[in-house]
Amino acid sequence: MVPVSHILLLSTALFFIGMYGLFTRRNMIALLMSIELMLNSININFVAFNKYVWPGQLDGIFFTIFIITIAAAEAAIAIAIVINLYRSHLSIDVNDAAELKH
Amino acid sequence: MDISTIIFYLIAAFILGMALLAVTAKQIFRSAIWLLFTLIGIASLYFWMEVEFIAAVQIVVYVGGIVVLIIFSIFLTQQSAADMPSPKLGRKIAAAVASLLGLALCGLLVYEYGFSKTEATFDNEVNRIGTAMLNTGSDGYALPFEAVSILLLAAMVGAIVIAMKESEKSE
């Protein structure tokens, strides 16, 4: 039997791997991929809690479904912004998009 | 140690290894492919936990939708063979230290608390999920369902408007 804490440790490790990517990458699409990793680690948490700690309810499943939907919407918007930025700057490096910086 | 436990640790090692490769790969296209394998590993973890509906949604939406969208946008925005500039060593070390400290803190909290496991069966048939999703009663999710539908519509319109070419608007 696998204890619940091992599943939670797996999702914690995945979350901080995503955070490492968020800190080191400077390419917008790579940043988006790191955010997807973090969202996925949170989904694992919700499902594990729902299955092993409160199996009588379905809240974790629904949170997971809504997070997946919102992640899809977020990816679509982010990629539209990235393509628009590439047209005007010919680069998707976050350091090149600094017009609003004072 | 029974076979189910061994399979869990194999899946966990697969997910973490692929995720590490995804955040450290030099070429962005390879990074997207490692991300694809990570998401498939997470779907197999859902199958291991016997939540088949979420596993199917994970494969359909993430692997079939989001990763394909990301790969398309990589092809649209830059040469996929070009290496990304490697981050400075100082930034790498600082990011690794910050992540490891956070991991140690959260891991310690989770490990010390030691969540107790109930042995009750978890009924997550699609029937039950569908009934609860469109139910307006006290345990129904009809309102969040409608809110998320409007969010998706708004995101679709927004993505089209943002990605529209400037010249078409000025004419």
Structure description:
The complex is a heterodimer of chains A (102) and B (171). Chain A has 102 residues and is an all-alpha fold. Helices cover 75% and strands 0% of the residues of chain A. Chain A is built from three helices and no strands. In chain A, helix 1 runs antiparallel to helix 2. The N and C termini of chain A lie far apart (56 Å). Chain B has 171 residues and is mainly alpha-helical. Chain B folds into two domains: 84 residues, NADH-ubiquinone/plastoquinone oxidoreductase chain 6, subunit NuoJ (Four Helix Bundle (Hemerythrin (Met), subunit A)); 46 residues. Chain B is globular, with a radius of gyration of 21 Å. Chains A and B meet through helix 1, helix 2 and helix 3 of A and helix 1, helix 2, helix 3, helix 4 and helix 5 of B.
Features:
A: 102 residues, mainly alpha, Helix Hairpins, 3 helices, elongated, B: 171 residues, Four Helix Bundle (Hemerythrin (Met), subunit A), 2 domains, 7 helices, 75% helix, 0% strand
Biggest sheet features of chain B: none
Largest interface: A-B, 71 and 85 residues
Return the CATH topology of the largest domain in chain B: Four Helix Bundle (Hemerythrin (Met), subunit A)
State the CATH superfamily name of the largest domain in chain B: NADH-ubiquinone/plastoquinone oxidoreductase chain 6, subunit NuoJ
CATH architecture of the largest domain in chain B: Up-down Bundle
In total, how many domains does the architecture of chain A comprise? 1
Within the CATH hierarchy, at the fold level, what is the topology of chain A? Helix Hairpins
Strand content of chain A: under 5%
- Strand residues, percent of chain B: under 5%
Oligomer: heterodimer
- The low-confidence parts of chain A are none
